[in-house]
Amino acid sequence: MAHQENLFHHIPVDTLDFERLAHAQGFQSVAGVDEVGRGPLAGPVMAAAVILPQGLNIPGVDDSKKLSSHKRELLFDVITAKALSIGIGTIDPEIIDSINILQATRLAMLNAVQQLEPQPDYLLIDGITPLNTGIPQKTIKKGDSLSLSIAAASIIAKVTRDRLMVEMDLLYPGYGFSGHKGYGSALHLEALRQLGPSPIHRLTFGGVKEHVACTSFR
Q1: Are residue 156 and residue 175 in the same domain, yes or no?
Q2: How far is Cα 172 from Cα 214, in angstroms, rounded to an integer?
Q3: Which of 6, 30, 38, 90 has the lowest CB atom count within 10 Å?
Q4: Is there a single domain that holds both residue 135 and residue 204?
Q5: pLDDT tens digits, 39-87
């Protein structure tokens, strides 16, 4: 079972506060974990786990949703250069459809953590759901705005997934994936009505399942 640590019961002073508190408790390698892509109608759900050097601050790092695409790309390069380790977890639409998006998200996060080398001894996780791992951890609601490590993971996950969806636009033209990244925009919904689902659509999601009869790829 997951080991849920409850070390921190205060409002953080800054975005390194949770990391400092973990280090003060004796943990040496703290990873921030976040996901992106729970809501889209197409494409994978993706998670990232990031271990940053102790005390490192990267100006501008914040919840990826608050940043422009250009800013995310710049920070992605900085984080990649400075991080001690980065792990990526990707769960494809077929698995999302078979186990549901919540379980797929948790699996993506766990896979991201397992990709880290060396393995962390403490996790800071965005959200309220712990991971099924023996690594001590803390879940933080809105953690991508409160923890630098989680914010860094959110940027890595978002940029990696966005780049993938641009590639998917080339493989499956007509849906506009490079623009909406799989989310249910008006353009995307109209494309689904006209073309039916592609091989990367989530067939159990509303907006897609109504058009499953239009496709024969699975």
Answers
A1: no
A2: 15
A3: 6
A4: no
A5: 999 999 999 999 999 999 999 999 899 999 999 999 999 999 999 999 9
